[in-house]
Design brief:
The complex is a heterodimer.
Chain A: H1 3-31, E1 37-38, E2 43-44, H2 53-57, H3 60-71, H4 76-94, E3 104-106, E4 112-115, E5 121-123, H5 131-150, E6 155-160, H6 171-174, H7 182-190, E7 195-197, H8 203-209, H9 219-234, E8 245-248, E9 254-255, H10 258-262, E10 270-271, E11 273-276, E12 282-286, E13 289-291, H11 312-315, E14 322-327, E15 333-339, H12 341-344, H13 347-350, E16 354-360, H14 362-369, H15 375-381, E17 386-390, H16 394-397, E18 399-400, E19 403-404, H17 405-408
Parallel strand pairs in A: 6-7, 6-17, 15-16, 15-17
Antiparallel strand pairs in A: 1-2, 3-4, 4-5, 8-11, 9-10, 12-13, 12-14, 14-16, 18-19
Helix pairs in contact in A: 5-7
Chain B: H1 6-22, H2 26-44, H3 48-68, H4 72-107, H5 122-138, H6 147-155, H7 157-160, H8 168-176, H9 182-214, H10 224-255, H11 273-279, H12 282-293, H13 303-321, H14 325-351, H15 355-372, H16 376-387, H17 396-400, H18 407-416, H19 420-429, H20 432-455
Helix pairs in contact in B: 1-2, 2-6, 3-4, 3-5, 3-6, 4-5, 9-10, 9-18, 9-20, 10-15, 10-16, 12-13, 13-14, 14-15
The chains are: A alpha+beta, B mainly alpha.
């Protein structure tokens, strides 16, 4: 290579380097519309801040600028996706995708696994038998039994929406021994009230009942949950609502749930669908105010305002944590439903069987009122015929750096407090 | 500010390059360097920048006093004052709590610890400025009469916070008379990108494995394989982290016309521990050799004194890396091996092909286990897992820990620790077709680094269980 050519080549290299770096920076500062909120990350994104003496001396300006560049970077989510795909492809070099649909593989550096070679995702399986966990399950069973004993006039039921990672259907293929149904059976065997759970007997059940990209159940799963609950509370002969229509939103809406966002959108999302029902007339009250009805039958009204769905709650009518549903039926019973996000999808359907439903999500209740839900106080003030406990396994034991989530779901009473 | 940050990459670096080359005068170019270096330091240490400036002024004055005095005693007096001030400040900020801990332990006292944050890069710039004053005292370099030039040398941002330790004599002439060129700038950028890749793509990923192993509280239950993977990953992490920073510093230096000396030379292909320390953090080991070991008498003393000299130097080398016992043990560990090599082992190793590499690697890896462990218990547990447990090569730890995706980076790191990729790079970069290909490869490397940097801010909401 002659000297002149070499200089030109090097000059081009330098110019390209500088222009591309400065170009991106100037674009971010002067041309790009700042994105304020990330629905995927459920947080405010960082934006350029003003430089002043205080912000520079305490370092906030510097931190903010670095975070702004990262948060507002061009094609940020595409970049996240590229990195996730790189990680997954790298993993597949050593742990290839399996045709065995029971074989689970990790998706990058996340606690998320996926089923076989498909993008059905699932939380990591539970491996450990822990005496502390056992104690917590037994404690809850004992608390519920005591409540049932103290309020014999109220019928109480417990329904557990089983999740994929708490079954033993994946054990053999993955050569692991998880606790499987150990804790479910422990709970069932120690409860004095009727118990039922979502049955997942094989991979087809799992795929049927759960979303591909989220830890929640699908419309099909929540419908099965509803049917199970009705049978549990009213017996096999009670009529259940039958879906009137199966609606898909293939072209209009993609659902990308928590598994999708946590794995960096390796799997971008799934077609969204729902069932509609011939629901009774009902009203919803939150803090004494009537809420606009937002259920499977009315969901389509909001579709124009949604590009895509990132949160299960958006598609499943979560009003809050202390909600009253009143149906058109005056002659039916009153239900106190102690639930979590899984319950929200079932509540509109249960209106067919109750005149009133008090829906309490103890964690949300605590965050709203900064006090734990007290059963004695509530039952003294409200006329309740039935109580249904329906929440996922984590609320029996889970605790982390943000607090003891399970403890909020304990049965808090006046006696002993 | 870190080289491996988006602010540095997209704002600071391009802005300083453009600003620097807007001026043609050497004085203005040096002032641009000085201004941006102070800004670079103040970015992370807005207040400690004042400490550094004061230290520069004191050393500038004392070096001038040393140079204008003819009497050796007076020169020596000023030198001692300089050393006391520089090492005193380093000791105060870096070793106060360690000393309090030792005193409390020895005498059963309960002195409270001092609430001090360590000024970034103080170990590096203290050694740089000391080398200048000592060399002025020794007459090896001329005193710098222009305080701005001296400040430009000490604060020069490429090597300010993570080395290499650039001695004044290395850039004495280049400070006032250097020749920047298109070739140097482009080569500097290329070197910078390579260093950035080492840091972001290799070191940061190796850190994920190493941290998972070293920080795990259930370490004692770990297997043979996990302990070895953790130890090797940390050895790769620290090498690529440190050498990556050195590459970036050398590259940035080149962009502005400076030729810093190499700091790493493929240390993991060394044939002995002696050879390893000729290849690892060269600027530090040569600094201790020239400013501590030789003034102590080097090897021209009695054998016991020579052994003592080596142990002093290596204890100080260990302490330089950090104020805790494990660094002291790590330094003494190397001192011991170097003495054994000098007494008899080196001759045996020279004849034992391949085994010498293996021996060196093992000593180095064990050394880094000591270096990175938080307690003596952890070291013992680590070593017992590495030696006492039943050998197996079960990768389920990586699988269940979601770390399988890091295996390719581990392999890349092992290959990149040898001169293979460098040799390929050298052989193709000046060939017309491959030259463009090499530059394209570097841009892809830069793009991957940006992807990794941007991705690190992605923080999906932990709303996963409820």
């Amino acid at each position: 290579m002659n000297i002149k050519h070499n200089i030109l080549k090097n000059l081009l290299f330098i110019i390209f380097f500088l222009v591309s770096l400065l170009g991106v920076f100037f674009y971010l500062v002067f041309f790009k519309d700042p994105i304020l909120v990330s629905t995927q990350e459920k947080r405010n994104l960082v934006n350029f801040s003003e430089l002043n003496e205080t912000s520079f001396l305490d370092g906030t300006f510097q931190t903010t600028l670095d975070n702004t560049l990262a948060d507002q970077f061009v094609f940020r989510y595409d970049i996240v996706k590229i990195k996730s795909i790189l990680d997954v492809k790298a993993s597949e070099l050593f742990v290839p995708k399996s045709n065995d649909e029971y074989k689970l593989t990790k998706v990058g550096d996340t606690p998320i696994t996926r089923v076989g070679n498909s993008y059905y995702m699932i939380n990591s399986l539970f491996y450990d038998y822990d005496t502390n966990l056992e104690e917590r399950f037994l404690r809850r069973a004992s608390q519920i039994n005591e409540l049932a004993k103290d309020y014999p006039e109220i019928e109480m039921y417990l329904y557990k929406p089983t999740q994929g990672h708490e079954t033993d259907i994946f054990d053999e293929a993955n050569e692991v021994e998880t606790y499987g149904k150990y804790y479910s059976d422990l709970l069932k065997n120690n409860l004095d009230i009727p118990y039922a759970e979502l049955e997942i007997n094989d991979i087809d059940d799992y795929k049927n009942y759960f979303l591909q990209s989220d830890h929640h159940w699908s419309y099909h799963g929540s419908y099965q949950g509803y049917v199970d609950i009705v049978k549990l509370m009213f017996g096999k002969d009670e009529e259940v609502l039958i879906p009137t229509e199966f609606k898909t939103f293939n072209d209009e809406l993609i659902f990308s749930g928590t598994f999708s966002s946590r794995t960096g959108y390796v799997y971008p999302g799934e077609p969204f669908y729902l069932y509609t029902f011939d629901l009774p007339e009902y009203s919803v009250y939150l803090d004494g105010k009537t809420q606009e009805i937002y259920d499977m039958n009315t969901f389509e009204k909001s579709i124009d305002s949604l590009d895509s769905l990132y949160m299960y709650g958006t598609a499943n009518y979560t009003y809050g944590s202390d909600v009253i549903y009143e149906s058109e039926y005056d002659d039916k019973e009153t239900l106190l439903l102690i639930g979590d996000s899984y319950a929200a999808a079932v509540e509109p359907l249960l209106m067919e069987h109750f005149s009133t439903i008090y829906s309490i999500q103890p964690k949300g209740y605590f965050l709203k009122y900064w006090k734990k839900f007290n059963y004695d106080d509530f039952l003294a003030e409200h006329d309740v015929d039935k109580i249904l406990f329906m929440y996922t396994v984590e609320y029996y034991f889970y605790t982390d750096e943000y607090g003891d989530h399970a403890e909020l779901y304990d049965i808090h009473r006046n006696k002993g407090d | 500010m870190l080289f491996s940050s988006l602010v540095f990459l997209f704002v600071f670096l391009p802005v300083i390059i453009v600003t620097y080359y807007l001026f043609s005068s050497r004085i203005y170019r040096n002032l641009v360097l000085l201004f941006f270096s102070l800004l670079f330091y103040a970015w992370g240490e807005p207040l400690y920048v004042i400490l550094m400036v004061i230290e520069i002024l004191i050393n500038y004055l004392l070096a001038r006093l040393i140079s204008i005095n003819e009497k050796t005693n007076i020169k020596r007096f000023y030198l001692i004052i300089t050393i006391i001030i520089d090492l005193g400040l380093l000791g105060f900020y870096k070793y106060s709590n360690f000393i309090i801990d030792i005193v409390n332990g020895l005498f059963g006292l309960e002195w409270g610890f001092v609430d001090l944050s360590l000024p970034i890069g103080i170990s590096f710039y203290t050694f740089q400025i000391l080398s200048y004053v000592i060399d002025v005292y020794r007459g090896k370099v001329k005193v710098q009469n222009n305080v701005f030039n001296l400040a430009t040398y000490v604060t020069m941002f490429p090597q300010l916070i993570a080395g290499p330790i650039v001695r004044y004599e290395t850039i004495e002439n280049e400070l006032i008379d250097r020749k920047e060129s298109v070739q140097m700038v482009s080569d500097g950028i290329r070197r910078f990108i390579i260093g950035l890749g080492k840091k972001i793509i290799i070191a940061n990923n190796m850190a994920i494995i190493a941290d998972r192993v070293f920080l795990d509280t259930t370490l004692a239950e770990y297997s043979f394989f996990i302990a070895w993977i953790g130890a090797i990953s940390y050895s790769l992490q620290i090498y690529f982290d440190f050498s990556g920073y050195s590459d970036m510093a050398i590259g940035i230096g080149k962009i502005f016309g400076f030729n810093f000396l190499e700091n790493f030379n493929y240390p993991y292909i060394a044939k002995s521990i002696t050879d390893f320390w000729r290849r690892w953090h060269i600027s530090l080991s040569s600094w201790f050799r020239d400013y501590v070991y030789i003034p102590l008498g080097g090897n021209r003393v009695s054998k016991p004194r020579w052994i003592l000299n080596i142990m002093i130097v290596w204890m100080l080398t260990g302490l330089w890396h950090g104020a805790s016992y494990n660094f002291v043990v790590w330094g003494l560990y190397y001192g011991l091996f170097l003495i054994i090599e000098k007494v008899f082992l080196l001759k045996i190793l020279e004849k034992a092909k391949l085994i010498n590499h293996l021996f060196t690697l093992l000593v180095v890896i064990f050394g880094f286990v000591i270096f990175n462990s938080s307690s003596l218990d952890q070291v013992t547990t680590f070593f017992s897992n590495m030696f006492m447990s039943v050998p197996n090569f079960d990768i389920s730890f990586l699988e269940t820990g979601g770390l399988v995706y890091l295996i390719p980076y581990f392999i890349i790191a092992c290959i990149a620790a040898t001169p293979l990729s460098k040799n390929i790079g050298i052989s193709v970069k000046d060939k017309e077709l491959f030259g463009y290909g090499y530059d394209l490869y570097l841009f892809v490397l830069l793009l991957i680094c940006v992807i990794f940097l941007v991705n690190s801010s992605y923080n999906p909401f932990i709303y996963f269980r409820f």
